[in-house]
Every structure is written in C-alpha cells, then in structure tokens.
Amino acid sequence: MKSWTPDASQHFESWLGRVRRSVAGDPTVDPDDVAQDLRAHVHAELEAVAEPVTVGALERVLESLGPPADWTGAAKDLPKERFHVRFERDVVEGVRELQKRVAADLGMPLLLGLVTAIGMADFYDGGMVLVAAAYFVARSKVTYAPETVTGRKRWLVYAPLAVGAGILTAVVLSFPVLLDKGPSGAYFGARDMWVLGLWWVFVGFVAAREVKRVRSLLKPFADGFDRTHARMLMLLGTAFMIAATIAIFPRYGW
Predict the structure, then answer these.
(1) How many CA atoms lie within 13 A of 100 on its CB side?
(2) Does 141 reside within a domain?
(3) What is the DSSP secondary structure assignment for residue 54, as one 8-state letter?
(4) Number of domains into which the chain is organized
(5) How many CB atoms lie within 10 A of CB 163?
(6) Model confidence band, residue 176 (pLDDT cutoffs 50, 70, 90)
(7) Do 11 and 96 sit in the same domain of this protein?
(8) Res 79: pLDDT
(9) pLDDT tens column, 112-141
(10) Last residue of a domain, one of 61, 85, 101
(11) Closest Cα partner for 175 from 209, 214, 203, 207?
C-alpha cells in the first residue's frame, strides 16, 4: 500500500465520514461496507500515482466519484458488484504485496525455511544435503549481514541454523557411541558410558580453551557460551566415568 501525506489521509477520512453520514439514513445500506468499498476503489485508482499520495492526486479520484451527498442512492448498487469486485481487488492486492515482500528481502529467508522443511522431511535420502546448504547460507547471513535478519524473517533464517546446530552438537557429543560397534549387554553399556564420559571431559576441555570457536560454530544459539558451561560438561563427563567404573569393577571382583 502506498504512503500518503498526512493532509491527504486526513482529507480522505473526512470525505469517507461525509459519505457514511450521507447513507446512514438508508436502512438497506451498510455505511461501513460502502466506506470499505470506496476505500478499496480509491487505493486501486491511486496505484499508478507516485508516492506519497498528495491531496491533489486524491482530489482527482474523488471528483470522479462525485460529492458524498450523491452516494445516498448510488450506494444501493454497491452490493450487486461487491462479491466479484472486492474479491478481485483483494486477491490482486494480496498477490502484489506478497510479490513486493518476496522481491525485497523476504525471499531468501522464505526459501531457506522451505528448503529446511523439505530436507528434514527426506533427511536420509538426500535431504541432509539441502539442510547443510540451508545451514551454510543462513549462517552466512547471520554472520555477515545480521542487520537483514530481523522480525519474522529471523525465525525463517533461524530454522536451518537450529537444525544444523542441533545435529552438529549431537554428533560431537555422541561421537564415540556412533563409532562403537561392540557387543550389546550390561558390560557394554557401562563401558560405553565410561568412554562417553571421557570424551565429554575432553570436549569440555577443548571448548573451555576455544570459547570463541564454539560460539561461532553454534551462532547465534551459543552467544552466551563461556568456560563455565565447558566445565559443567567436564564435570558431567567425570560423573559418567565414576558411575561406569562402579558398574564395571564388580564384574572383576573389585
């Protein structure tokens, strides 16, 4: 919708108010419907006018509609064309606004959201490539053009980032388990916990020394990450190792 000068907006609302008062005495006509139809018609007529819409440009359109007092009888004809005229105007205007937003800066975030959704729906049959590509583009926007990621667009860009960060975190934290192909059973479970705890101690140690790298890899969700979180991971890994050791030693008579 085009921008208007304050004088033009005030003049138009005043004109619509006179139209409402003119048709208010006719019980077969709804003043609000008449005003809404006139508003849509005027905006459509002014589509080709340069912004902002001035009083002069508005007056040329209003003159073609006639004085507000003349709408007492003319308003009765509006319901006959309301359905198809209003439908056409609303659809055309809606499509036009959507095209403007997509053509401006909503296009890339919207595309990223769609690619992520499609990739997650078919993740193991090639979808992971789409998710990885969406993650790369989204991370590039957040890192090098954060001023463009605002409002609702932020959630569309954050979707592939959240998926990518979640997958990366899960792979790193469970890496020894993913590689372990040993036998199943109680002993395997305890050993697996011990190895996993040792791995978490190592990951926590590295993360404590490379805080900036962790923040960069998991941006923007790890912006608040610091050494305290890394130490908590090390403590949790140590707890896993102690619990696993208690479970393993009785098997050997310790």
Answers:
(1) 8
(2) no
(3) P
(4) 2
(5) 20
(6) confident
(7) yes
(8) 43
(9) 777 777 777 777 777 778 878 777 777 777
(10) 101
(11) 203
φ, ψ for residue 4 (rounded to 5)? -120, 155
Provide long-range contacts, Cβ within 8 A and 24+ apart, for 193-196: 193/240, 193/241, 193/243, 193/244, 193/247, 194/240, 194/241, 194/244, 194/245, 194/248, 196/237, 196/240
Quote the domain boundaries for residue 70: 6-101
Amino acid letter at 51? E
Distance CA(82)–CA(78), nearest Å, equals 6
Question: What confidence category does residue 90 fall into, taking pLDDT thresholds of 50, 70 and 90?
Answer: low
Main-chain phi, psi angles of 96, to 5 degrees? -65, -45
Domain end (from 80, 101, 122): 101
Between CA 236 and CA 157 the distance in angstroms is 32
What are the tens digits of pLDDT across the range 21-76?
877 777 777 778 778 888 888 888 888 777 788 888 888 888 877 776 665 554 44
Same-domain check for residues 178 and 97: no
Distance CA 241, CA 173 (A): 15
Q: Is the pLDDT assigned to residue 106 strictly greater than 60?
A: no
**Strand, coil or helix: what is 98?**
helix
Residues in Cβ contact with 227 at an 8 Å cutoff, skipping those fewer than 6 apart: 208, 211
Within-domain flag for 123: no
In a domain, 112, yes or no: no
In a domain, 149, yes or no: no
Q: Give yes or no: residues 11 and 97 share one domain.
A: yes
pLDDT of the residue at 223: 82
pLDDT at residue 163 greater than cutoff 60: yes
Length of the chain as a residue count: 254
Claim: this prediction has a pTM higher than 0.70: no
Going by pLDDT thresholds of 50, 70 and 90, the confidence category of residue 99 is very low
